[in-house]
């Protein structure tokens, strides 16, 4: 059976139709699934085909709205809501304990949640909030759920996957500042630097997962595209989105502003996608069998695009240092 070629306009539903057989018995956990976000659309699309979709959020009321909306769209969906605040290590541990008590194995862990470029803010554990949401919290969650992921491999001969949502914006910065990771200060922070570091960490972590696990769990990272989500619509994030320069695929810079001054998409400079298109690359990273032998890859527009990763985010030595530094911050080792 020949598989289709995907493009920037491919939708999550089209990807899932192609891989329905691969998805039908899988259990998937997706973080950050609020309405009007690509995490929600990813969960909604996968729920039509998967055995179980675990959706997460830190706000119980909003999480309930997402659950109801998915079930309304897909009446047959097996949805399980999970309270999870990635800015709280205690919340991460509690959520992981709950998942580990589930009878089902876990096949795919999708780290979709993001903070979105807001002002400097420390978490209750003393970490910078963007890096906590995009890297430190997901690192701990993956560590705690690793046995659950590995059990899916032993029971179904499937190689479990960890998917992180990065951004083409990772290439703007200079990579992760390990000193800032450990000792965040407002003086060393800008909305842009926090965002760029967080997205760089996503790529480095996804690549290192496969190396550390000896290929028993494989990771992929991706740029979903520019999508006008709930994250872009938050007032605290719009300041950043109005100022960020557009780094296009050919790495040339355009005029400033992913958003116009009125807060609407600047689609004359950015190639915006709709929600269904924005979720497609995540689904490819989670299920496409053609990328199985390319662990650690970075995807753009539903295809592997490792040539678009900045050197500071493709360096295996930097990935190792970030992993070791995160272990030190958490005070515990992460071994598969």
TrEMBL record:
Pfam families for the chain: adh_short
Leader sequence segment: none
Keyword Oxidoreductase: yes
InterPro entries cross-referenced by the UniProt entry: NAD(P)-bd_dom_sf (IPR036291), SDR_fam (IPR002347)
UniProt KW keywords: Oxidoreductase
GO MF annotation: an example: oxidoreductase activity
Record-stated family: Belongs to the short-chain dehydrogenases/reductases (SDR) family.
Identification of the protein by name: Short-chain dehydrogenase/reductase family protein
């Amino acid at each position: 059976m020949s598989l289709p070629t995907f493009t920037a306009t491919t939708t999550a539903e089209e990807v899932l139709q192609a891989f329905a057989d691969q998805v039908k018995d899988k259990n998937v956990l997706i973080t950050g699934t609020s309405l009007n976000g690509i995490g929600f659309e990813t969960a909604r699309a996968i729920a039509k085909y998967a055995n179980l979709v675990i959706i997460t959020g830190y706000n119980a009321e909003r999480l309930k709205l997402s659950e109801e909306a998915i079930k309304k769209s897909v009446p047959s969906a097996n949805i399980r809501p999970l309270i999870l605040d990635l800015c709280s290590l205690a919340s991460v541990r509690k959520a992981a304990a709950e998942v580990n008590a589930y009878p089902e194995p876990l096949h795919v862990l999708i780290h979709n949640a993001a903070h979105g470029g807001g002002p400097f803010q420390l978490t209750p554990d003393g970490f910078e909030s963007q890096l906590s949401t995009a890297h430190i919290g997901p690192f701990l969650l993956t560590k705690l759920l690793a046995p659950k992921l590995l059990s899916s491999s032993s029971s179904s001969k499937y190689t479990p996957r960890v998917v992180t949502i990065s951004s083409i914006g990772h290439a703007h910065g200079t990579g992760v500042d390990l000193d800032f990771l450990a000792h965040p200060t407002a003086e060393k922070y800008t909305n842009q630097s926090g965002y760029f570091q967080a997205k760089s960490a996503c790529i480095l972590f996804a690549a290192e997962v496969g190396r550390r696990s000896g290929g028993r769990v494989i990771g992929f990272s991706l740029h979903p595209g520019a999508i006008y989500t709930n994250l872009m619509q938050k007032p605290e994030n719009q300041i950043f989105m109005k100022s960020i320069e557009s780094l296009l695929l050919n790495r040339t810079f355009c005029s400033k502003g992913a958003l116009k001054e009125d807060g609407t998409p600047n689609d004359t400079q950015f190639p915006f996608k709709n929600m269904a298109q924005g979720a497609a690359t995540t689904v490819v990273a989670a299920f496409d069998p053609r990328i199985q032998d390319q662990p650690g890859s970075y995807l753009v527009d539903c295809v592997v695009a490792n040539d678009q990763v900045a050197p500071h985010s493709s360096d295996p030595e930097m990935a190792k240092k970030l992993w070791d530094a995160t272990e030190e911050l958490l005070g515990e080792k992460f071994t598969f």
